[in-house]
Amino acid sequence: MKVLFRIILMCPFLSFGHFFSQENWDFEKINQKKPLFLDTRAINGHTVKLLEKKVLELRIIHRFGDIATNESYRTLFGLDNSSDIRIGLEYGLTDKIMIGAGRSKGAGPFLELWDAFIKAEVYNNKALKLKISWSSKLFFTTMKSSKIESDLTYFSKLSHRATYHNELLIAFKPINKLTLQLSPGFIFRNLSQIEDKNFIPHIGTIARLHLFKKVSLVAEYYANINSTDYRKNNYVNPFGLGIEINTFGHVFLLNFVNSRGIGEGQFLPYTKSKWTKGEYRFGFTIARKFNK
Q1: Angstrom distance (rounded) from CA 50 to CA 121
Q2: Could you read off the pLDDT of 164-188 as tens digits, one per residue?
Q3: Quick one: which of 46, 59, 80, 263 has the fewest CB in 10 Å?
């Protein structure tokens, strides 16, 4: 398995020859369109972009281990470890509605995590360079239940395995090469610690700066709003920086994040790693589109 994912990791680099030798790169045409986002994701969260009608996309996301802790050099700065992996398929039903599903290894406390989502365009004003989308997601764990009733992974009911997430995605272009997005939403867990809350509202912020040709800088931060003392003492907000590289049919995202888990059901309520302690990790996303 380690060999398989190391091969996957090398895919962006093996593709660089193709990346730099594309003869049909139409930069002028793409620059004229100036889309808000080139991908349906930023780093962890969704963007306002949807897949085109009848386009199927295979998406592979990988998170490694801590880079800058005292013992990180023993794991080649996290590359020997895998905090989470997700493989999913997504499809554009129409130009304004897309669906998707996937499975993550899980970074804890939940493992064997399945997810499904639907995303729809709500409003699009090309003149104002403003777009609004909405997304709804379901996360469900199939891991074996703990036998200890006080554990968070003790599932006395089937519904305890489910987590729900909804958000509104609002993006606009204040200047030519910069896209900003606000993502107000909430997550609801059917099961949480006694000291915690099931309902957690949040506001996500995403910035994408087009650097040159097909390379962009992406920054992402999610702030949970109704943090209890328990959450303040045990969890932190997720923050990430990434480089987005786009070619025809492929999107590569290389990033550094403090969150271990993939998907809102993990990175919003359960991020503990702190940037100030070197507990951030390298990750990547590979997205491959298949047209009809």
Answers
A1: 8
A2: 999 999 999 999 999 999 999 999 9
A3: 80
